[in-house]
Amino acid sequence: MRAALWYGRRDVRIVDIAEPAIAPGKVKIRVVWCGICGTDLHEYAAGPIFIPVTPHPLTGQQAPVVLGHEFSGDVIEIGAGVTSVEVGDRVCVEPIISCGRCAACAIGKYNLCRSIAFHGISSPDGGAFAEITMADERMVHRIPDSMSYEQAAIVEPAAMVVHAIRSSRFRVGDRVAVFGAGPIGLLIVQAARASGANGIFVVETSAVRREHALRMGASIVIDPTREDAAAVIAEETGGGVEVAFEATGAKQALSTAIAGTKFGGQVVVVSVWEGDATIQPNQFVFNEKTMIGILGNCNNFPETISLISSGVLGVDSMITRRIGLDDLVSDGFDALLGATKEHVKILVSPS
Ligand SMILES: [Zn+2]
Ligand SMILES: [Zn+2]
Questions:
Q1: Based on the domain organization, do 145 and 49 belong to the same domain?
Q2: Ligand nearest to C-alpha 110
């Protein structure tokens, strides 16, 4: 079967590999759509970040690895002992692989597993930029008939956003700022609006993405290359937002997010970083602000599926391009990394 393998930075190849062989407890899936995630872009442009180059402690995997973890498809085979899904079911998959034994796993926080691995990064079952992939039964979720495969490919990033909002100090009536209007930022805008935000500021350099943000419920969009975003937010809110979400992984955005948050407020970092950032601790000390980080999702796929299928989170307009696997690098990665940032979510059809 055809699959996209990460060999190294700026070296992703579409090659023929063997189909994964079914095993007890596993579910084999024919991939219909797999979205390109910011994580894939980080690995392509600046990796390895999560991709193991020596054997992964939990899975034993190392590069080259099959990429792709935001996906939907059809169950085509089930392993011995699998009871919750059947051949023919339409599904999406939580891309987290956890040990089940560490301190984090012991309290159900499998997204913080001390030896965490990810589908499409360090999984023994491959990734979803491939015609066929496989996953553990408990990570496979059926989707309702009313939900499209395209929508189902967005469940994973949406589940991360639901996890971020629920983990934050955000309360109905709060003002929020969102830094970065890529797929994660736009989902945060929608989730914050649905949760009763009393004003949503979006800071984004791309004009196209600012337009998306306005359509999805942003109150004010700010181009940080033309305006002092922290000053605009402070002026409009009388001192800053209650909660700021940082979804860019850029140093300047993190600084502005901290500056644009009011005393007692919270900065929620949902981005993955390619390098270090600089923080002046007094910004937190003198204002009793807090900052938290968010990784992946945890125990919330079912409610995220229903938030999308009921339309609370509208994901269709975020899908701005659909491509085949052979065009993954040129029309996918390079397009998303380009200067214009005209695309939001690009879906890939491996078949
Ligand atoms: Zn992702
Ligand atoms: Zn664990």
A1: yes
A2: 2
pTM over 0.90: yes
In angstroms, what is the span from residue 167 Cα to ligand 1's centroid? Answer: 18
Distance 220 CA to ligand 1 centre (A): 27
- Burial group, residue 175, by CB count within 10 angstroms (0-12, 13-18, 19+): buried
For the chain, how many structural domains are there in total?
Answer: 2
Say how many Å lie between the first and final Cα of the chain, rounded.
9
Cα 348 to ligand 1 centroid, rounded to whole Å: 14
Q: What is the CATH number of the domain that holds 129?
A: 3.90.180.10
Residue 260 Cα to ligand 1 midpoint, Å, equals 27
User: One digit per residue, pLDDT tens: the chain, 351 residues?
Assistant: 999 999 999 999 999 999 999 999 999 999 999 999 999 999 999 999 999 999 999 999 999 999 999 999 999 999 999 999 999 999 999 999 999 999 999 999 999 999 999 999 999 999 999 999 999 999 999 999 999 999 999 999 999 999 999 999 999 999 999 999 999 999 999 999 999 999 999 999 999 999 999 999 999 999 999 999 999 999 999 999 999 999 999 999 999 999 999 999 999 999 989 889 999 999 999 999 999 999 999 999 999 999 999 999 999 999 999 999 999 999 999 999 987 788 899 999 998
**Ligand 2 centroid to 295 CA: how many Å?**
14
Ligand nearest to the CA of 108: 2
234 & 319 share domain: no
CA 268 to chain centroid, in Å, comes to 14
